[in-house]
Design a protein that fits this description.
This protein is an alpha+beta fold. About 30% of the residues lie in helices and about 40% in strands. It has a single domain (about 1-140), classed as Gcn5-related N-acetyltransferase (GNAT) (Aminopeptidase, 3-Layer(aba) Sandwich), CATH 3.40.630. It has helices at about 10-20, 25-35, 80-95, 110-115; strands spanning about 1-5, 40-45, 50-60, 60-70, 100-105, 120-130, 130-140. It is globular and about 40 Å long. The mean pLDDT is about 90.
Amino acid sequence: MRVRRARLDEAGILLGMESEEIGTFSPKQLSSFLTSGAVALVAEEEGDLKGFVLALLKGREDARVYILTVRQDTRRRGVGMLLMGALEEELRRLGIRRCHLEVRASNTAARQLYSKLWYEEVGLLRNYYGGEDGMKMAKGL
């Protein structure tokens, strides 16, 4: 499995993968992110996309992970860990010093993954996901 930059022509595939999870982006939004300097990476195995991660730079030293998603048939194989590791490496290369993200409070698997990557829970976000609480997490890079 390899990680590489996402391409604009893959936006439809990425949206399909993302909608399995939470369906937050429109095609226009994702295309805008992919052309505006966001860090968007995909995990690929034999030409088949298995997951992706997208982060936006917030100023010179901060980034925010907007989505990490792994295809359901590929979960529990380390793809999320691989993508986040590659993302953090790229963010460090760009001079980013801190990474933030939000996750559903009920998403135990994701919270465990982020904890393994040394993200700390830094705040509770009441009703952040349409009536469901979220957790704000952060990590120094």
